[in-house]
Amino acid sequence: MDNKAELSNLSAQTKLMPFGNKTVYLNGEYLPLSEAKISVMDRGFLFGDGIYEVIPSYSGKLFRFDEHMQRLENSLSSIRLANPFDSAQWLDRLTPLLDANLDQAIYLQISRGVADKRDHAFPEKVTPTVFAMSTTIVPFTDLDTGAKVISVDDTRWALCNIKATTLLANILLRQQAIDNGCAEAILVKDGYVTEGAASNVFAVIDGILITPPKSREILAGITRDVILELAEHHNIAYSEEIISLDALKTASEIWITSTTREIVPVIQLDNESIGSGKPGSLWQTMNRLFQDYKRASHE
Ligand code: PDD
Fold it and tell me: Could you give the angle at which helices 87-94 and 65-78 cross, rounded to 10 degrees?
């Protein structure tokens, strides 16, 4: 089906959806979530052979869309998959999932597709499976009190810059945090902080805002980039450099950042208070700048 035919077919189907029945996109169709099905031979299911994106949408407008599209392109080329759509085609497909009255996170996933046998090697001819859905962003509720985190060994693989659906290590590490009454696990490799199980990490050390540099050991967070841009524009001293766990323990502030949680102040690391044990003053400033920037982006 060509792009136009697919879209008009889609919008006809969308109108048929009963109110309140969540509509998702799957391979060219809009369907109620309960009817969206994929084959058990999908390589996303069998191998986790796929990548994903999570794009926030405020008042029906996708935030930092071009940057998310660029990261999607990077992830796809890293796993040797062609992008099925250009940015305009993605926007066409995602727009019906947006709700102008909600803050949403749009999840999209592309797997290598359905093969006729389970074989690690890429199948010769295969059509990628494309799925997208919206979820409501529920702001982190403990902003006033802050979050507790634990440090854990970064047991993930060597290509953490790819936003791969293969997230078993991240899931186990996040669950370890939750089992310890913490909101996030701070991952540590060879004594140095990489990132969170599903977030980037910032620290304020000697008055400087520090975050580890982009590398294959971290996912290049879009929220992280926004924060560094805001720091630059507002003359907040910052640096992209490695942070040892020992240095992190001396920080006056720690933040964890992501699309779904935005900027969360950390008040306890491994049961020890960070700074005053309350969200810090630079966090207050940055959170205000971030919220203003967000608002301006969809006005
Ligand atoms: N995760 N690092 C990891 C490992 C992540 O999973 C995420 C986000 C980030 C922050 O990236 P961004 O600021 O672009 O959201 C960093 C998403 C939200 C998720 O997996 O649901």
Answer: 110
Q: Whose CA is nearest to atom 9 of ligand 1?
A: 199
pTM of this structure? 0.93
**Could you say which DSSP state residue 118 is in?**
-
User: For residue 216, what is the DSSP state?
Assistant: T
Within a domain: 142? no
pLDDT in tens, 197-236: 999 999 999 999 999 999 999 999 999 999 999 999 999 9
Q: Which of 103, 136, 169 is the last residue of a domain?
A: 136
Q: Look at residues 90, 112, 136 and tell me which one is the last residue of a structural domain.
A: 136
Determine the distance from the C-alpha atom of residue 138 to the mean position of all C-alpha atoms in its chain, rounded to a whole number. 14
Supply the range of the domain harboring residue 252.
Answer: 147-297
Q: Residues lining ligand 1, judged by CB closer than 6 Å? A: 54, 170, 195, 198-200, 219, 221-224, 257-260
pLDDT in tens, 143-158: 788 999 999 999 999 9
Q: Are residues 200 and 116 in the same domain?
A: no
